[in-house]
Amino acid sequence: MIATAIHRAALAALCLAAPPATAFSETSDADQRREAILALTPDAEYGAYLSSECTACHAEEGGDIPLIHGQDREALIDALLGYKTGTRSHDVMETIAGRLGDEEIAALAAYFSEVN
Ligand code: HEC
Asked: Which segment of the chain is annotated as a signal peptide (predicted)?
């Protein structure tokens, strides 16, 4: 019991010590991040390059996995940010989106919104 209490206290201290920039769970942070991504000039060629990781699952046709080709750019950004920040949950996509930086999200959204 005491060990558990100490453990909890240590966890709480860790959480408090975390810099605000990592607290993506707060809506305002997610909103700011969304605005920052939208303000970038996306590099669709870089998106095409990165897309090979995605198209293994997101094929252009068939299957149970949603089609992302031709989706609205902002919707793609929102979905990827959602998985990244935890407002959308899906184990695989959370892992994948968690690794993507702003430039990469912008590039992928630009690429997939432009292809059909
Ligand atoms: C291992 C398979 C896999 C890979 C690789 C993968 N995805 Fe996904 N993705 C999924 C699945 C499954 C879903 C549906 C998840 C759900 O139900 O929320 C999904 C959902 C999405 C959605 C939301 C689509 C919608 O209409 O709701 C987007 C956007 C997306 N993925 C983008 C990407 C991008 C960009 C990459 C590459 C960086 C990628 N995915 C790589 C399996 C994958």
From this structure: 1-23
* Domain boundaries 24-114, corresponding CATH code: 1.10.760.10
User: Domain limits of the chain?
Assistant: 24-114
Instruction: Give nearest CA residue, ligand 1 atom 38.
Output: 54
CA 59 – CA 57 distance, rounded (Å) = 6
**Per-residue pLDDT reduced to its tens digit, 65-98:** 999 999 999 999 999 999 999 999 999 999 999 9
Please enumerate in sequence order all residues whose Cβ is within 8 A of that of 49, keeping only pairs 6 or more positions apart, or say none.
none
Pocket test for ligand 1, best of 50, 52, 54 (most atoms within 8 A of CB): 54
> Is the CB of residue 79 below 6 angstroms from any atom belonging to ligand 1?
yes
